[in-house]
Specification:
Radius of gyration: 23 Å
Strand content: under 5%
Number of helices: 21
Order of helices and strands: HHHHHHHHHHHHHHHHHHHHH
CATH architecture of the largest domain: Up-down Bundle
Helix content: over 70%
């Protein structure tokens, strides 16, 4: 115990560092193995990485499935938990029998969570940088029609699901003073259902060389708008759960709109000289520093506005000039770091909060309702509003399939709903992980099945500008 404490009795930071270093190594090994398996069976790597996070959590390494009666002494499991909560001696003994709790103690999890948030900011920066604004001209009506449709319908479906699932099994703090209202719970359900894995959509369309087609442009741009609207909805739902006044809600939405407007109307023109600098000197260390500062500044503001670092990272990428060249250079530098190292840390952090052993038979019906409602709402809305936006029925159906993919973004929303706001239970958060896995796994096969033959036969192989993570 003496090693764990400093002279003044506080925790020795070296103790937390040791756990973080060990945890990152474990996470990366699991992510590479499961990612490889996922690719071999024809699924995106992110599916395997999500499963790796689940495996490292209590679903497999908890006391219900695997446990040990005594951990290795160098891990100091009992002391780790006791120092985080001195009154929790029984919990410390239980943690010593849980492989997951022992390997990922409370001292390391906040650090892993912060690394995961940094990963999301960089990841969405690359997504925003890849967005082709030139291809959007003349398609604004169709884009807005699809974007609004695939948010409004899921919100409506969220209220239907909220009506059916508003009980102690799925609502956080049910029966206590912290019990959220049915409106707050329904809004959060709508937010979880409205998620679209924007990066997965963009990557699939680019691989098929359809990203400049009417279908591709409409889908990608609409998904970008949905990403921003969805996190505004999450913040709004959190505000309702915390019983904020109407004035605060209006102020939040207004500040987010102002932030977006400033980014495009002021910051984007101010960054225009970077294009000339890039053309003359290429990608220098100074330019990289400016871009990283921009990413962190935008992520900070977005987090302060309670719309997630994801929105900030995306906007930072969306306003940069010299987009094609910078995307190639930045993706070469950031893709491996983000996709191979940082994102698996976030996915593991999500997995540590996911315990499938808690999903007893009495929860299956509610989770099934959530899954079916989510698929019907997103796929159906993409189909109907894609047609209303000017696409053919076949093209609109493909857009609906892509909109239905949740990827890792629903994991972000589910963690916010569970840990930050307390609107949902751990069982409902497991439902969010299932939604991520099921919808992501079904996207590729359905896309290949329903892609119109005329489009499939006329599109040449795509020329990729550079590597990018797909999640």
């Amino acid at each position: 115990m003496e090693f764990l404490l400093k002279i003044d009795g506080t925790l020795n930071p070296n103790f937390s560092l040791l756990f973080v270093l060990l945890d990152v190594a474990i996470i990366l090994v699991a992510a590479r193995i499961m990612g490889f398996v996922s690719l071999r069976i024809g699924q995106p790597r992110v599916v395997g990485e999500i499963l790796a996070g689940v495996i490292l959590g209590p679903s497999l390494l908890g006391p219900e499935i695997l446990h040990w009666t005594g951990s290795f002494g160098f891990l100091d499991c009992d002391d780790a938990l006791h120092l985080s909560n001195p009154a929790a001696i029984p919990e410390a003994n239980a943690a010593n029998e849980s492989i997951s709790a022992c390997l990922f103690p409370p001292q390391s999890r906040p650090v892993l969570g912060i690394l995961g948030q940094v990963a999301l900011a960089f990841f969405m920066f690359l997504v925003g940088l890849e967005l082709d604004f030139n291809a959007l001209k003349g398609k604004e009506r169709g884009i807005l029609t699809v974007a609004l449709g695939v948010v409004i319908v899921p919100i409506a479906m969220g209220f239907l699901v909220g009506e059916l699932l508003y009980d102690e099994k799925f609502v956080g703090g049910f029966g206590t003073d912290a019990q959220p209202t049915k409106v707050a719970f329904s809004l959060m359900m709508g937010a979880m259902i409205s998620v679209t894995a924007f990066p997965v959509m963009a990557r699939i369309l680019q691989e098929k060389n359809l990203h400049t087609s009417a279908m591709g442009v409409t889908g990608v741009a609409a998904a970008a708008i949905v990403t921003v609207l969805m996190f505004v909805l999450v913040s709004f739902a959190a505000g309702v759960a915390e019983d904020r006044s109407a004035g605060k809600h209006v102020l939040m939405v207004g500040l987010v709109a102002l932030f977006v407007a400033i980014m495009f109307l002021a910051v984007r023109p101010a960054l225009k000289p970077l294009e000339k600098y890039y053309e003359e000197k290429g990608f220098t260390a100074e330019l990289l520093a400016i871009i990283v500062i921009l990413i962190f500044a935008c992520a900070y503001i977005a987090q302060q506005l309670e719309v997630s670092v994801i929105v900030g990272g995306f906007l930072a990428g969306a306003v940069l000039p010299a987009r094609i060249g910078l995307f190639k250079d930045m993706s070469l530098r950031l893709s491996d770091l983000t996709g191979t190292i940082l994102l698996p840390i976030f996915l593991a952090f999500s997995g540590l909060a996911t315990d499938f052993t808690k999903l007893k038979p009495e929860f299956w019906g509610g989770v099934a309702i959530f899954l079916v409602a989510g698929i019907v709402a997103k796929w159906g809305a993409g189909l109907i509003f894609g047609k209303l936006g000017g696409l053919s029925w076949a093209e609109a159906n493909v857009v609906g399939i892509l909109m239905n993919c949740r990827g890792l973004l629903i994991l972000v929303v589910a963690l916010i709903a569970l840990r930050d706001v307390g609107v949902i239970t751990a069982e409902m958060q497991v439902g969010g992980v299932l939604m991520a896995l099921v919808t992501t796994m079904m996207t590729g096969p359905l896309f290949d099945k329903f892609l119109p033959a005329a489009i499939r036969s006329t599109e040449p192989p795509a020329a990729q500008p550079g590597p990018a993570p797909s999640a």
